């Protein structure tokens, strides 16, 4: 090899080694659940499994990601579970619109405890729940309500939403604040966890259809906008908003989840895809889903994993980061 060619080869190798590696597309694996389950929400369990609401079956499901084995725990006559989260006690807590109640399932004994809304309370169409930093569960009801449950006393309270119908997604920020999104009302609201009163916060785009909310490590609130096809972010420190349109011709932003690295994950019904958004670079990456008509209605995760309920095809899926 001539000296000039040798030097060229050395320089090319050095440049190649120094160049930043392009991240490969994340791996996705799907798991089938019993037909007719129509899983709506998921919540990674402490035992390494994954809880899911089998909405059409009136049951709480559990998946073993290693074997693919599933089991269903019936929640009672007329049950139609919507949301599921894992509480500070390690148990799954469910918002059950069919029972008009909050439900707790003991992960070891599978005992089902039901916390019905107070006698005489209206049908709330229960949706989603979150635990605040004091261990109180807060929930939303699309019919125009939100409320709280004290797990220690079993007391259940109901509040009327300030603008009626619409409360949907709900989250707790690291600073202890609780926010919900109103799909029908096209706004978010901050709940005073002491008084229970909610204060409406208006996003910049009218009629955007705020569907779900999630907080990042800085307690900024990310909002999935169903009608506008956007993701927006509200910073309570500055009271300022920012908005980004999802890629594609007809985005329909259903769910939002922010992982431990502050990466924002979104489900896009219009593209049958997951969308990854990096707030630092402000760049999107669309990740097509393997099954057509997946209909991912909620997102949750644990370090290195993002879990999805594919309600349209009776499957769960995981994205490994």
Question: Any descriptors?
Answer:
321 residues; mainly beta; Thrombin, subunit H; four-stranded antiparallel beta sheet; 1 helix; 28 strands; 47% strand; disordered N terminus
Oligomer: single chain
CATH topology of the domain at 36-113, anyone? Thrombin, subunit H
Largest sheet: 4 strands, antiparallel
Counting DSSP E segments of at least 2 residues, the number of strands comes to: 28
Overall 3D shape: globular
How large a portion of the residues is in β-strands, by DSSP E?
Answer: over 45%
Q: Which CATH class of the domain at 36-113 is shown?
A: Mainly Beta
- Spatial strand arrangement across the major sheet: 1-28-27-26
Structural class: mainly beta
Give the low-confidence spans.
1-22
Provide mean pLDDT, rounded.
93
How far do the termini sit from each other? 43 Å
Helix content class? under 10%
CATH architecture of the domain at 36-113: Beta Barrel
- What is the H/E string? HEEEEEEEEEEEEEEEEEEEEEEEEEEEE
Number of helices: 1
Radius of gyration of CA atoms, rounded to a whole number: 21 Å
Explain what you see.
By secondary structure, the chain is mainly β. The chain has a domain of about 80 residues: Beta Barrel (Thrombin, subunit H), CATH 2.40.10.500. Helices cover about 5% and strands about 45% of the residues. The protein contains one helix and 28 strands. The strands form seven sheets. A four-stranded antiparallel sheet has the order 1-28-27-26, with no helix packed on it. Strands 2-3-4-5 form a four-stranded antiparallel sheet, with no helix packed on it. A hairpin with a 4-residue loop joins strand 15 and strand 16. The radius of gyration is 21 Å and the shape is globular. The termini are far apart.
């Amino acid at each position: 090899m001539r000296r000039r060619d040798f030097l060229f080869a050395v320089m090319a190798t050095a440049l190649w080694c120094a160049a930043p590696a392009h991240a490969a597309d994340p791996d996705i694996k799907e798991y089938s659940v019993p037909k007719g389950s129509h899983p709506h929400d998921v919540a990674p369990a402490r035992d390494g499994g994954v809880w899911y609401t089998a909405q059409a079956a009136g049951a709480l499901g559990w998946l073993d990601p290693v074997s693919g084995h599933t089991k269903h725990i019936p929640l009672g006559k007329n049950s139609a579970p919507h949301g599921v989260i894992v509480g500070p006690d390690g148990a799954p807590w469910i918002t059950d619109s069919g029972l008009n109640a909050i439900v707790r399932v003991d992960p070891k004994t599978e005992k089902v405890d039901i916390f019905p809304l107070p006698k005489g309370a209206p049908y709330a169409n229960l949706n989603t729940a979150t635990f605040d930093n004091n261990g109180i569960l807060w929930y939303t009801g699309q019919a125009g309500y939100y409320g709280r449950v004290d797990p220690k006393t079993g007391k259940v309270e109901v509040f009327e939403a300030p603008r009626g119908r619409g409360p949907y997604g709900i989250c707790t920020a690291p600073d202890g604040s609780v926010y919900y999104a109103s799909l029908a009302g096209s706004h978010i609201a901050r709940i005073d966890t002491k008084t229970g009163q909610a204060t409406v916060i208006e996003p910049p785009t009218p009629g955007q259809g705020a569907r779900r909310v999630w907080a990042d490590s800085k307690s900024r609130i990310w909002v999935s906008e169903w009608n506008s096809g956007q993701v927006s972010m509200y910073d309570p420190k500055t009271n300022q908003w920012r908005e980004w349109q999802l890629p594609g011709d007809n985005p329909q932003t259903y769910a939002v989840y922010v992982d431990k690295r502050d990466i924002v994950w979104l489900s896009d019904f219009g593209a049958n895809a997951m969308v990854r958004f990096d707030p630092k670079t402000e760049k999107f990456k669309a990740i097509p889903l393997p099954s057509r008509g997946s209909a991912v209605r909620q997102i949750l995760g644990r370090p290195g994993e993002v879990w999805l309920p594919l309600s349209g095809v009776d499957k769960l899926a995981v994205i490994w980061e």
